[in-house]
Amino acid sequence: MTGSPGEGGLLPRCLDMIFNSIGSFQAKRYVFKSNDRNSMDIQCEVDALLERQKREAIPNPKTPSSKRQIDPEFADMINVQEFCKAEVDEDSVYGVFVSYIEIYNNYIYDLLEEVPFDPIKPKPLQSKLLREDKNHNMYVAGCTEVEVKSTEEAFEVFWKGQKKRRIANTHLNRESSRSHSVFNIKLVQAPLDADGDNVLQEKEQITISQLSLVDLAGSERTNRTKAEGNRLREAGNINQSLMTLRTCMEVLRENQMYGTNKMVPYRDSKLTHLFKNYFDGEGKVRMIVCVNPKAEDYEESMQVMRFAEVTQEVEVARPVDKAIFGLTPGRRYRNHIRAGPVGDELLVTEVVLQSFPPLPSCEIMDINDEQTLPRLIEALEKRHQLRQMMIDEFTKQSFTFKGMLQEFDKGVSNKEYSIQGKLNEKEKVISGQKLEIERLEKKTKTLEYKIEILEKTTTIYEEDKRNLQQELEAQNQKLQQQFSDKRRLEARLQGMVTETTMKWEKECERRVAAKQLEMQNKLWVKDEKLKQLKAIVTEPKTEKPERPSRERDREKATPRSVSPSPVPNAPPLRLRHRRSRSAGDRWVDHKPASNVQTETVMQPHVPHAITVSVANEKALAKCEKYMLTHQELASDGEIETKLIKGDVYKTRGGGQAVQFTDIETLKQESPTGRKRRSSTVAPAHPDGAESEWTDVETRCSVAVEMRAGSQLGPGYQHHAQPKRKKP
Fold first, then answer.
1. 294 forms bridges with which residues in the sheet?
2. Which of 146, 507, 510, 682 is disulfide-compatible with 714, CB 3.0–4.6 A?
3. Pair type for strands 587-590 and 625-633
4. pTM score, whole prediction
5. Is residue 512 within 8 Å of residue 519, measured between CB atoms?
6. Maximum Cα–Cα distance across the chain
């Protein structure tokens, strides 16, 4: 497409031929103006001059100047050795407009569009839409069209868009094009007026020709290019558009060969939709195929050659071009007049003499001919009168014209003076603007340098901020961990303090109860000795006193064996363990870690039980029964242990559920909590007998009971009182 240094490609050759042909017949810049509807408008010389002055005062990057220095490499590329030229109509003027677009992922982007530069967040190019003009030709709406006056300008515009084209590095190509690019060259032609100096201000007389140079991206195989991610998506869109192009060619060929009228799928791809008119016969299509001679690319080369073969066989009926003729002699006639000999000025005299009356025949055949001379004299007199009238008229007109010339000279001189003054003012304004532009450029460079410094500083600050945030998060996590450890330690210490407090309270109560029991025993022994001494002193006792009714009732309710004296070192009685009704089932013995060890003789015991501190689904799945050991403080300050029992059922969701069926309450009581017998004094007998505490048998029975109670536990009695509740 572009060629190499020293050997120009298609683009420089086409541009060179166009400008060689219309070089001397180009219209001034901005005479033709694009109206963004795929057509052109004509501006008069005054409007074009004003726009040129406006654009020259403010440099426009869209209109490169021909005076700008060209890169030597570009100059080598556009330097075409062959001189090609075509014949053009000399009674017309011409203008050249170029545009450059790319079709990427089936979206159209304008490569010449000026996007404001944003170093922080660059703004991407916006996709363009395809539209149809009044002549049913497809075009890209809102596409930038730049007027160029030379091959160098056009190639500079092309290279500016080429830098924005999407390319990538693949396994097969270091700079693989990822899109189809289209470089459009529009040639605008408009006829001259009758004088051949100005463009005819008639929009209908404009003729527009377009040459589109399309650089198609090559088809790719994923297994060879090793494309992934975005590259794979781009390759899929490229292959899809090329497949649509081939399908259109095949349908056109089928319609041509078999006379069918199948619909050509132009709209399946933006590439074929854009050039729909070319395939329908509004233009000519030529395809150039590039083949790689490497043996590894044999299959791809064969596919491309088959595609080219099908394309070569397609023939499309094309309308006959209408010949364009000049409306007036114009430039050719003027050039012919200027190039003719000096004697051609006599033609004006001949035209003037044709307005005089013709002379009669002057031949006199007879001496007596009296008519010829009078007629000749009359004709000459008429000619003389006409000549005199013309001289007078010419004199008058010359005087009038001289006056007009003098007035015009005065006006021109005044205008020149005023124009010179305006030009001087404009030059001053332009010089001031140039100084202002230089100042602004310096200021811009300074601001750019400051912006660069600020960006670097911002980057450093952001990095420091991220590091500090990470450090802060680490410190917060560490503090949270320490806080959690502290709370766990506090809870653990609180539990230990509670457990130690309860233990010492129990120990104190046990010691107090033991001491009280010991003192009561000593007091009872002394009382017994005093009673025996009193009985010996007074009189011998012959009859055993009757026990009080309350003592008899108590003995009936609680049968026991009475020994004459307490046995302090007797072994503790081993109570018989009550067997559970569901001893054949397997239990889950749930004992929370917060429970307090009561150190009592009677303890709940379930054989073959799974003991856990936290209920879990795995333990429940292996057992049929569930027992929860719960401790709480009773109203009298003693620890009350509840055994909450239940049945384990399987749920529909595959889990386990517990239905509670029974509650057993185990309560510890201190002997000091019972009603002290020493606090009540029985009424005296009518015969003057002592209270029941004077009865030796009563005191011995009480002593034996208390001694037995001390063997069951250190100052406690353990009662198992099962309480059943309905589920």
1. none
2. 510
3. parallel
4. 0.47
5. no
6. 235
